[in-house]
Write a structure and sequence with these properties.
Elements lengths: L5 E5 L3 H12 L3 E6 L10 E4 L1 H9 L3 H5 L7 E6 L5 E6 L1 H8 L4 E4 H14 L3 E5 L1 E9 L2 E8 L2 E7 L1 E4 L6 H6 L6 E13 L12 E7 L2 E8 L4 E9 L9 E4 H5 L7 H8 L3 E9 L11 E3 L2 H4 L8 H16 L5 H30 L5 H25 L2
Parallel strand pairs: 1-2, 1-11, 2-7, 4-13, 11-18
Antiparallel strand pairs: 3-6, 4-5, 8-9, 9-10, 12-15, 12-17, 13-14, 14-15, 16-17
Helix pairs in contact: 1-5, 1-10, 2-10, 10-11
C-alpha cells in the first residue's frame, strides 16, 4: 500500500540530499536510494553564488558550510596569453548587499558533508547506501520501485519518485529513452594544492581568478580555511572518458598550456597530478516527468560548468520541489507544477553556460574582440549580465 506522505529519492548526491531535506522539512517521510556503498565526494572545489546560498539557508545548511568556506572579495578575468586584465567583478560585501546572500567557494566534500549531516540526523529521512534502483512503475496511487541491496531485492511504494541520480540517470533513461548525456568535446582537469605553492604574485589573494586562452581556460580560488587552492583547467578534447576523475600526471596537462603566459602556466604546474572529467550536457526535455515521477538536478538539466550553476540549480530545484509538494492534494499535479516553474530557468542557465563556454574558448583573432568587449563592460557589466542568475 502506498503511504501518501512517503517520497522516494534516487541518488544521494548534492541534489538528492537537498531534496530529501526539503521534503522532510515539508512533512514527508523520505527514503533515499544511492547505488554507491560510500558517498562520492570527488570534484574538488565548487562556487556557490547567492542563489545557491539562499537555497542552502532555506535547507538549514548555510551556517555550517560557511564555517568551512571562503567568501572571496572579487572575481578577476585575465587574458592567459599576455596577462592583460579584462574585468574585475566585486564579490564579498557587494554580493551580500545586492543579492542578500553571500558568494562562497568551498570544497565539494564540505558541501556534501553539510547536507549529509542534516539528512542523517533527520528522523524523517532514511539513507540507503549501496542500494540500486532496478525498476519503477507509476500508477494511480503513486509509484512502486524495485531496489537491490546486498543481493536482496525489495519492492517499495511511495507517493512519488524523484530521480536525482545524476547526468547518467537511470530514472531519466526509463522515462525518456535515448536522451542520455552528450559529450561537449571538452575535458576539465581538476586539482587542489597548497596556497603557498602558487607563484608569488598569486598568493594570499581572496579572489576567483579566470584566465582565458584560445580553446582553453583556467579557474582557481581558495577553499577550506583559505590555505588551499582549487584548480580547474578546461581544454577542448574530442576523446571522452567514461571515468569520473581519471588520474593524469601534471605534465600531460601542462603541455596543453605551453603557449600561455608564465604566471598562469606556473599555476598549472604547481599540481603534481590532476583528475580528468569529460564534460557532458543533458539534452533539453519538453517534460521532465510523468505521473508520480520527476527529475531533479543533473538528471533533468545537466549543464556545462561555465556559469558555476550545476549545484546551484539542483539546490533551487530541491527548494521549489518541497514548497510545491508541501500542501499539495494531488501529487502528480504538484510535480507538473514544479516542472513548469523550474524548466524555463534551468533551460536558460543551460544555454548561458553553453554560450559562455564558446566565448571563453574563442580562437584568435576572435578572442581580441571578446577581450575588447570585456574591458569595455568591466566588472559592472559582468554583474548586470549575471544578476538574473544571482537574484533568481
Amino acid at each position: 500500500m502506498t503511504h501518501p506522505r512517503t517520497v522516494l529519492v534516487a541518488g544521494a548526491g548534492i541534489g538528492g540530499l537537498a531534496a530529501s531535506i526539503g521534503l522532510a522539512n515539508a512533512g514527508f517521510r523520505v527514503l533515499v536510494f544511492e547505488r554507491d556503498p560510500v558517498p562520492d565526494v570527488s570534484g574538488a572545489g565548487i562556487q556557490l553564488s547567492p542563489n545557491a546560498t539562499r537555497a542552502l539557508a532555506k535547507l538549514g545548511a548555510l551556517e555550517a558550510l560557511a564555517a568551512k568556506s571562503v567568501e572571496p572579495e572579487e572575481l578577476v578575468v585575465s587574458n592567459a596569453i599576455n596577462r592583460a586584465l579584462l574585468a574585475t567583478m566585486p564579490l564579498g560585501r557587494t554580493m551580500r548587499e545586492k543579492f542578500k546572500s553571500p558568494y562562497l567557494v568551498c570544497l565539494r566534500a564540505d558541501l556534501y558533508e553539510a547536507l549529509a549531516r542534516i539528512a542523517a540526523d533527520h528522523p524523517a529521512i532514511e539513507l540507503r547506501y549501496g542500494s540500486m534502483l532496478e525498476d519503477f512503475a507509476a500508477h494511480s496511487g503513486g509509484v512502486s520501485v524495485k531496489t537491490e541491496r546486498e543481493r536482496k531485492s525489495e519492492e517499495i511504494a511511495g507517493a512519488a519518485l524523484i530521480g536525482a541520480d545524476g547526468i547518467r540517470s537511470a530514472v531519466r533513461a526509463k522515462l525518456h529513452p535515448g536522451t542520455g548525456p552528450r559529450h561537449g568535446g571538452m575535458s576539465a582537469w581538476r586539482a587542489t594544492i597548497e596556497g603557498n605553492l602558487l607563484p608569488q604574485e598569486m598568493r594570499g589573494k581572496s579572489q576567483v581568478r579566470v584566465w582565458l586562452g584560445p580553446g582553453a581556460h583556467l579557474v582557481h580560488y581558495p577553499v577550506g580555511d583559505g590555505s588551499r587552492i582549487n584548480l580547474v583547467a578546461v581544454t577542448m578534447e574530442r576523446q571522452a572518458t567514461e571515468s569520473w576523475g581519471e588520474e593524469v600526471p601534471q605534465e600531460e596537462v601542462a603541455r596543453r598550456f605551453a603557449h600561455w603566459d608564465a604566471i598562469p602556466r606556473a599555476v598549472i604546474e604547481t599540481a603534481p597530478q590532476y583528475r580528468r572529467w569529460s564534460l557532458f550536457e543533458a539534452p533539453l526535455l519538453s517534460a521532465w516527468g510523468r505521473g508520480a515521477v520527476t527529475l531533479l538536478g543533473d538528471a533533468a538539466h545537466g549543464m556545462f560548468p561555465f556559469v558555476a550553476q550545476g549545484a546551484a540549480a539542483a539546490l533551487e530545484d530541491a527548494v521549489v520541489l518541497a514548497e510545491t509538494l508541501r500542501s499539495a492534494e494531488d501529487t502528480d499535479s504538484a510535480l507538473r507544477a514544479y516542472e513548469r516553474i523550474r524548466t524555463p530557468r534551468t533551460q536558460q542557465i543551460q544555454s548561458a553556460a553553453r554560450n559562455i563556454g564558446r566565448i571563453y574558448h574563442l580562437p584568435m583573432p576572435l578572442s581580441f574582440g571578446r577581450d575588447l568587449v570585456m574591458k569595455r563592460i568591466g566588472g559592472a557589466g559582468l554583474m548586470r549580465q549575471n544578476a538574473w542568475i544571482y537574484s533568481g
